[in-house]
Amino acid sequence: VLQGVQSNYDTDVFTPIIKEIEVITGAKYTIKASNKEEDRVNIAIRVIADHVRAVAFAIADGQLPSNTGAGYVIRRILRRAIRYGFTFLGTKEPFIYKLVEVLANQMGEFFPEIKSQQQLVTNVIREEEASFLRTLEQGLQLLDKVVAETSGKEVSGAKAFELYDTFGFPIDLTALILREKGYD
Q1: Which of 35-44, 141-150, 166-175 has the lowest mean pLDDT?
Q2: Which of the listed residues 53, 105, 121, 161 has the most CB atoms within 10 Å of its CB?
Q3: pLDDT of 73-89, one tens digit each?
Q4: What is the DSSP string of 61-102?
């Protein structure tokens, strides 16, 4: 309200990160999308901007991504952002880690840990991105194959588990992508 905008994402809290995402990816953020493609791009940019903030602050506070507990929550949040960049912005290389500098410059005065831990945060996000992008590309291809071989609108739990167990493709991401495609 104070800034005269309709969304949190259009405030000065998010616009520097959104502008950097545009620069890095070549995607264009539009305040009012006029078609489904613009809407998908807007959503992807918002997800990435929001999620990098959450992940960066958590890492600066000492919570590293892992396979259990709070660390797994951090990993899932970051993986969701990576997937949105990959699927809707066409990013095939790590880039989210580059947003940490913008965030540190913007928020360092109010949250000094983001500035003092900037290199750690950047390195952790870069490594997570690189690792997950390798899994993501292969997993999406396999998931597309599973969907093509599925009769009806339900993929078996056994197939979802096989993607996870054999190829490391997360169950929650499988469920999210299937919902987007209209499957259970």
Answers
A1: 166-175
A2: 121
A3: 999 999 999 999 999 99
A4: TT----SSHHHHHHHHHHHHHHHHHHHHS---S--GGGHHHH
